[in-house]
Every structure is written in C-alpha cells, then in structure tokens.
Amino acid sequence: MAEERQQEIVQNIQDVRAAIATVPHKENARLVAVSKLKPVEDLQYAYDAGQRHFGENYVQELVEKSAKMPQDIAWHFIGHLQSNKCKLVAAIPNLFVVETIDSIKKADAMNKACVSCERAKPLRVFVQVNTSREEAKGGVAPEQCSDVCKHIVQHCPQLELGGLMTIGMFGRDPSIDNPDFLCLADCKKTADEVLGKGSDLELSMGMSADYLQALQAGATNVRVGTTIFGARPKKP
Ligand SMILES: *Cc1c(COP(=O)(O)O)cnc(C)c1O
C-alpha cells in the first residue's frame, strides 16, 4: 500500500515536471506542491523525489508539518491569513514566502510579527490580488495592488516584496486567454513601474487545472495540489 502510494506521488511529480519543461523559457519556474490536508507521509514521498517547495493553507497544519519535516523544505503559506496568526507563521524558520498578503493592515501585522520573531532575514511576501473580483475570494482589488506593494517596500523593513499572487475563478474556459492571468500580469506591469529600480515581481498563478496556461501567461511560481497528491478530503 505505502509503496504504491509512493510510486503514485513520484510519478505524478515527474509528470508535472515534464509538462512544465515543455513550456518555452519556463524550465526555471518554481513548482509548489500544495499539500494541505495530506498526511506527512505523502509529503515525505514527494520530498524523497526531490520536491522542496511545499504549500500549506492552514496555520496549525503548517506549524505541525514544518516541525516534523526536513528543515531544508521551503514552505509557502498560501491560505487566508488572520492578523492574530501572523506570529505563528513568522516563527517558522524555513518559511520561504507568505503568498497571501491582502491589505496594508495585514502587511503591517506581518511586519510586526517578524520583529518579535527576530527572523535572520526579511520575510518574503507576495501580495494576493482578487483578479476575479469575487466576494468570497481574498486579495486586494487590482487597482489597489501597487499601493499595497509600495507600502510594503517603503514601510515594512522586515518584509521583502517578492511578487503577486492570484487564485482566480474556477472553471474558466481553457480555450481562451484566462482573464485572471492577464489581470495579474497587468498588475505586475503597473507595480513594477511604480516601484522602479528594476523591479521584476514574480507571478504566482496556476493550479492543477491550469498551471501550463499560467506559465504561458508569465507565471514564475505554480501551485499544484490535486495533480500531485490526488483529491483532498473535505475540510473538517
Ligand atoms: C488548494 C490550493 C491550490 C492547489 O489547488 P489544486 O487545484 O489542488 O492544484 C493552489 N493554490 C491555493 C491558494 C490553494 O488553496
């Protein structure tokens, strides 16, 4: 059983990597294995297959898994972030990035949390943009994106602005250009201009259903869960 599960995950990762390698100029794109609600055994199989970037959505789960797993993992927090949980997240030494900064207030809270955790280096963050303008989705409105970016660069010395992130609408027509990806690329263009000094923000977009399309649209970071680990149980 365990061996079959391992083979399945290893094969899935190889398939995703091979697919990414077919996209021109995207051989250096970062694959984040989204492992929420999956047991550490599954993550360990992926790790043994060379996977180092993992994404988690729930603070408690991230805290527990990061304590159990090897310390050279680069963790991505990709879930909704509550201000009162910032300290727990900031205290994880091998946290690579918080992808879900969705307001100036949240940036300030994260900055403050980093001061008290005495992180060795500024913490990398992405600004989440609600490109589909869905009420249920987190993120700043596209027209507010550069203001939040500017605030982080100018007023949050414990943070290092690394890029922009979107989840986008589910079930977009794959035969046409994805409006969410176009919107995030547009936000990057504006923000890079506003920030100046050779700013080149990353784009975190694309999940199991559309990561290849996202790479073609300029993604540097794709977040793939189901295609690697299979369907998830419902969140309790
Ligand atoms: C769950 C999740 C993913 C992975 O989605 P899949 O469709 O399973 O690949 C990616 N990004 C975010 C923010 C998520 O919450």
TrEMBL record:
InterPro entries: Ala_racemase_N, PLP-binding_barrel, PyrdxlP_homeostasis
Keywords, sorted A to Z: Pyridoxal phosphate
Domain Alanine racemase N-terminal as annotated: residue spans: 8-233
Cofactor(s) needed for function: pyridoxal 5'-phosphate
Keyword Glycosyltransferase: no
Top-rank taxon, per record: Eukaryota
Residues annotated with N6-(pyridoxal phosphate)lysine modification: 36
A GO molecular-function annotation: pyridoxal phosphate binding
SUPFAM superfamilies found in the cross-reference section: PLP-binding barrel
Family: Belongs to the pyridoxal phosphate-binding protein YggS/PROSC family.
HAMAP family cross-referenced by the UniProt entry: PLP_homeostasis (MF_02087)
The protein's role, per its UniProt record: Pyridoxal 5'-phosphate (PLP)-binding protein, which may be involved in intracellular homeostatic regulation of pyridoxal 5'-phosphate (PLP), the active form of vitamin B6.
Protein name, UniProt field: Pyridoxal phosphate homeostasis protein
Organism per entry: Hesseltinella vesiculosa
